[in-house]
Amino acid sequence: MSRFRLLLAAALLCTLVAAGKADARIPIRVGISEQQAAMFDQSAYQRLHIHHVRYFVPWNVMEHRDQRLLARNYVKHARAAGAQVLLHLSTDDYRSKRGHLPSVREYRTQVRRLVPYFRHLRVRDFGVWNEANHASEPTYRSPTRAADFFREMYRAVKGRCRSCGVVALDVLDQRGVEKYMRSFFRHLSPTYRHRATIIGLHNYGDVNRRRTTYTRSMIRQAHHYSPHARIWLTETGGLVKLGTSFPYSPTRAAHRLSTMFSLANRFRRSGIDRLYIYNWTGTGRDARFDAGLTDPDGTPRPGYTYVRRKLAGYLR
């Protein structure tokens, strides 16, 4: 009996130690933002045990069969891999300042078709509009229209699934972002300000220039109007290349990923509880933009190695 008690005590101690290690993880869920479903079949991805991914679609994806089937294929692959998809709406024309800004009626018509279609595929999180303040998106000059879109998306999603998430506003850390956010929130009624419980931020500038300026100010703006809003870094990561500002360097990108995690942890008590690293598949030396954790052929880069090591201390 004495030996049994010793064994029982030892087993209980092991359980408590394991629970303590789990509790010690930083309560930020780390996912990947990626457009290629092939990621899910790669062993490097599978070793990360990621449970959250992000994918963006044209706002009128229901009008375009090929785009819709690509999105459906992505969602099915994600679900088979045990990952939940944040589905974010975006422009259908990425030429700077050329995309069509839908009317509220057009947007309403599309989300009332899109939401049930993807809810049937068990998508639970939806984003109103990706990077709304950037010139590649037609919302960049119209924060009030972005606010109108939030109301429509909220009604479409929450009418079907009260526990589903809606990223109310998604913005990039660039000059003028605070003004954009103020205009967005001031256009909302008090009821919808209260309902804006998830705000998406892209803080590439802070991460890659090793500063806190915009991350801090964007969170401050969000909480001024919606004090209990959760903050999701819906796109962030180390830049392998960006034009001439950041020449091609996977090593530098890996170092900047340490800043990404440090920033997220620093502002965790300010509401950051989810982070999507953009992205998985790199585009190579000749591309203008590259933030991939892997080379175009799937070979892991230094950034992948760093992320894999850090993930042990975070939720997924």
Automatic annotation (TrEMBL):
Listed name of the protein: Glycosyl hydrolase
Keyword ATP-binding: no
Signal peptide: 1-24
GO molecular function: hydrolase activity
InterPro entries: GH
Transmembrane segments: none
Keywords: Hydrolase, Signal
Protein's organism: Paraconexibacter antarcticus
Lineage of origin: Bacteria, Bacillati, Actinomycetota, Thermoleophilia, Solirubrobacterales
